[in-house]
Amino acid sequence: MTRERVQPLDQVRLEAAAQWWVRLQGAESPVDDVSAWFDWLETERENREAYLRIQELSLRLQATAQVKARRSSLRWDRRVGALAASMLIMTVGAAVLWRMHIAMQRPSLTLSTPIAALEQAPLPDGSIVSLGGATSLKAIYTEALRDIRLEEGEAFFEVHHERSQRPFVVNAGPVAIQALGTAFNVRKTGQRVTVTVTEGGVQMSRVGAVRGTVAVATGEQATYDPRSDRFQVVAVDTDRALAWRERRLEFVDEPLDAVIANVNRYSPRHIEVRDVNLHSHFYTGTFHPDKLEEWLIAIERAFPIDIHSSGERVIIESHR
Predict the structure, then answer these.
(1) Which domains does the chain have, with CATH numbers?
(2) pLDDT band, residue 95 (cuts 50/70/90)
(3) Is 19 helix (H, G, I), strand (E, B) or coil?
């Protein structure tokens, strides 16, 4: 197995501190950035010490940059600040920049499908991915990781077992899914992510979270709900969950807004929701792309909504 060289902890900490320093030099640093910086400082005492060392070094570098600017008839402005930042990164974060350079050289594969189209393609490691309608993903392979990024839509993965045992990880918005010798389906609808396992198992976790890993076994389905920031795992009929591969969508007790979003990936006419909250309404049923009108009539009867057409669009509004 090829392993990446691990840097000493102090160097890693200093690089992180240098990145925070550069990140916070903007004229208007986002509130989220500042809050995350405070959290990082409070995590460990050594983080604060590393940042103070970087801060001290930055002051020295700024002084040096100012001298260089004066010698070259430059005013002390943002150009000099940028020079100081560059010097700091070169001094402390050379390894970070090198890793960024390596990352840019990584081989990648981008796949996408139009509305209502189904496709299947091999991945660089021999794994097979089936893509649903209006789906896009990117595969980035390194010596240490098989990194799949599902940007939107739905995909079924049949993971090839490698001797090198590189982790196979699907990143879908706020969720990371690591395969454990497996076949599984991932559906991303906005920030809502649903994973169904047909063989083996997976581990799901919230990206950036320290805790909260969820194990999902064969015949189970796990859904991450961004509103509650929680995972829910249930036993399911996997054939129903993968019915999209036979050009029909099966839903079981799902929020109607998520249902509409997934229907739009196959619908011959775009459905637009206006001035109505559909998340609190739950739908169970089947959608056939060639029976859109019948399906619309059925949901209009079942929910407090009005549906009418406007050109090539279908408009859903609150019932008046």
Answers:
(1) 9-104 (no CATH), 108-240 (2.60.120.1440), 248-318 (3.55.50.30)
(2) very low
(3) helix
User: For the chain, what is the total number of helices (H) and then of strands (E)?
Assistant: 8, 18
Task: Determine the average pLDDT of the residues in 137-144.
Answer: 88
| Whole-number Å distance between alpha carbons of 254 and 232 | 12
Which residue, among 236, 276, 235, has the nearest Cα to 255 in the 3D structure? 276
Phi, psi angle pair for 14, to nearest 5°: -65, -40
Model confidence pLDDT, tens digit, residues 100-112: 444 444 567 899 9
pLDDT > 80? residue 154? yes
Count the neighbouring beta carbons within 10 Å of the beta carbon of residue 56. 10
Please state whether 15 falls in left (phi above 0), alpha (psi between -120 and 50) or beta: alpha
This prediction's pTM: 0.67
Q: Left if phi > 0, otherwise alpha if psi is -120 to 50, otherwise beta: which for 66?
A: alpha
Per mean pLDDT, which range of 54-63, 183-192, 243-252 is the poorest? 54-63
Token duo for residue 146: 């098989």
The answer to whether 39 and 48 are in contact (CB under 8 A) is no
**The pair of three-digit structure tokens given for residue 219, joined into one six-digit string:** 């015949």
